[in-house]
Amino acid sequence: MEFKHEPIMLNEVIENLNIKENGIYVDGTIGGAGHSSKIVERLKGGFLIGIDRDEEALEVSRKRLSGYQNVKYVHGRHEEIKTYVNELGIDKVDGILLDLGVSSYQVDEGSRGFSYTKDSLLDMRMDKEQTLTAEDVVNSYSKAELEKIFSDYGEEKFSKKIADRIVKCRESKQIKTTYELADIIRSAVQKDQVDSFKRIFQALRIEVNGELKELNNTLVDAIKLLNIGGRLCVITFHSLEDRIVKNTFTEMQGKCTCPKDFPKCVCGYKSYGKVITKKPLVPTDDEQMRNPRSRSAKMRVFERDDKN
Ligand SMILES: C[S@@+](CC[C@H](N)C(=O)[O-])C[C@H]1O[C@@H](n2cnc3c(N)ncnc32)[C@H](O)[C@@H]1O
Ligand SMILES: [Zn+2]
Questions:
Q1: Ligand 1 centroid, distance to 211 Cα (angstroms)
Q2: Amino acid 231: pLDDT
Q3: pTM of the shown model
Q4: Which of 7, 67, 107, 203 has the highest count of CB atoms within 10 angstroms of its CB?
Q5: Which CATH superfamily is domain 10-101+212-304 in?
Q6: Closest among 291, 181, 272, 185 to 229, alpha carbons compared
Q7: Distance (Å, rounded) from C-alpha 8 to C-alpha 295?
Q8: 218 CA closest ligand 1 atom index
């Protein structure tokens, strides 16, 4: 199957990364190399490290960037970014991109179980070496746990009803497929079913892949890996994700707590740099029209400086 995925806010990412020809860059979610192909094009002497937890996505990137010798591919999670970079004998890098969530390819590839529009086993693992699947979550989590996931990660107002219905249905028969789950959601929710399908499938995907659990640590490690002037660009698709990025950036920027009338700062607050985007960047109207998946995207940028 062809890897169809239009890179989100491509121009904005390239502009904000301030790419230097001889710099070292990390794409922590390389996917189909949509952004990375534009990053490597700009490098002369520099190189790129591309990480993805999905082996199929890495394979697509390897092919797409086969003309470049200056790319290192890592099958793994961006949560381990520091280890991977250090293992290559590198201390600091000049720019990092995280384009979070799933790719359109993963959703469109029916067999992965990400989509309620394709009948397949309830899998949803981005990394097939992982053991926990959506089937495990749906069939083994308690009613209260399911309700919490649906309402926290899916912001679904019928979370309780849907969790209730799941627990009843699984008493007689294990819930195995995307269509079976969609039928259960349909029977629990009368109106706006498509939106409920989307929200519940999204919530399960976030839980299965632990997408929000270590994001804060990844961001802290990524910022610490940057050279002075280096930038971290993060694209999110979910309000909770965006909140984590916003709060971590604010923490890493730090804040002077000296009284206003002090001539100079004596509080010695720690700062790893500054937030470049006071408000998140969003796709242009044109991009949102062309690519509906971009509509929920938000990008925030942090620049390392030398206060510490
Ligand atoms: C939105 S896509 C990236 C698309 C890419 N920027 C492009 O333009 O082709 C997100 C990718 O991140 C990967 N991914 C998600 N969570 C990850 C994690 N924790 N560590 C590494 N890769 C992850 C997914 O497998 C997917 O390929
Ligand atoms: Zn101060």
A1: 11
A2: 98
A3: 0.92
A4: 203
A5: Vaccinia Virus protein VP39 (3.40.50.150)
A6: 272
A7: 10
A8: 19
